[in-house]
Specification:
The chain is an alpha+beta fold. 55% of the residues lie in helices and 14% in strands. The chain has a five-stranded antiparallel beta sheet with strand order 2-1-5-4-3. Strands 7-8-6-11 form a four-stranded antiparallel beta sheet, sandwiched between helices. It has a two-stranded antiparallel ribbon with strand order 9-10.
Length: 504
Amino acid sequence: MNILFYCIIYLIPAYIYIFWAGIIYSNNRHSQKHITCSLMFLFASMWFLGVFTSLLVFPDHYYPITIYWINGSITIASLLSLHLWLMNANMYNKKNGQYLKLLFLPGLLMLATIPIDSWMLRGDEISTTEFMFIPGPGLYLLWLIQFSYLIVNLILTRIEMKKGNEAAKLWFKGITLFFVWTLSTLVGGLILQDTNFYFIAYFIPHGALFWMYTIYLSMSKYDYLSSYENRYNILFEKSPLGILILDENATVLEASPLMSKYIGVERQELINSSILAFVDGIDNEDFLESHHYYYENQIKLSNKELTFVNKLGESITILVDSDFIMTEGQLLQFVMVKDITEAKVKEKRVKYLAYHDILTDLLNRAGFEKHISELLSDKEKFDFVLLDLNKMKQINDTHGHQAGDQAIQHVASLLRKVMNDNHPVARLGGDEFVLLLDPNKTGDVIKKVRSQFDTPLKLANNQQIFLSASIGVSHYPSDGENMDQLYSVADKRMYKDKEQTKEK
């Protein structure tokens, strides 16, 4: 009956510890925290196995098992727990953190002094009729060091709690319960060892169950000591990049949530379907041909831009990087995608504003100079038409600058109606506009422009203003071979036209 009782109270917890240690180690075999924690669980199981063995063989070899096996296992577990908690609190990474390793010296020294006679226990005779367990000064010192390590663990756990670590709150409860339980049962066992209540000492190791269980619970509740799979899922789910895994036929084998957002469909629709089924605006045949070429030659992509229309009808521009991975004997393409749509829109807008006038949306001086430089390089004849709005100062003084802006916008609008895309219109600044025309069409265009001014401009207050403009024309190449020469001739003729308008 005693053996069955011992099996229940010692072997079952020991095997639970071993099971937990295996799970923790398998979660990440290369992590110091995982290795340390799994070893701590194993030595905790050794504590239970040592007590079970000592009771089976009692009184033979009781002292060696108690001192070497049981207290040795407890001390090593204490050292491992201290190491684990120092790593949890990132204490090693702090200034002079390497000196914290000196904390392990007392425990290691006590392990080394275990064989000294009369140091751990006083007396070496055990009788089956009368047994007194009398600790020596070394054992008391060893217990003190073990409890000191426990206090340090409590302090480190409190530090983690203040950082907002939810798992640390569980650890603190577990360590506190372990501390209270172990101290109570140890003191009670020593006091009551010569009474019928000595059995209380049988349950000294069970306080560790509170501690170890809270560690294991924090793994599932707060992802403490997470597995490779959990870490992969976290990386995959939270990655700031869209992630795709494709086979040689561009079939999607895996897709991150961000990638689903880019494509505009649910992840379930993407999986096991061709990526081409969800994107428009690209040549499917060319895409597949390129994909097969890259795949066969294992060519990595780096910062490759691709623009497509997703299932929501949105135009998306992405930056693609890729690599190849071998999984279960199958070569797969690992694709990382960054959405640069907004950046491209901003870039396009900045580029547009660099060559366009904000008020009228016509070409500005920079845009016009770029265009006329290209035209001059072609050496073909054209007319340089300069247009200046009359009485602009009077409009600003009488009706305000807002009316002046409306007048400029009105002129820009009527010039667009007359001109076509092949003949650029630009606002050089103020109320000055310029057109580049085919010499054979210049006269007709000017007549149309002047006729447009017959329609008055309606202001916001319902007032009407009749606008007029002065026009000067220069001819390339007869009047000049560069912009400055053409502008100078056109400007003189424009002011001559303005004077004639005043005389009328």
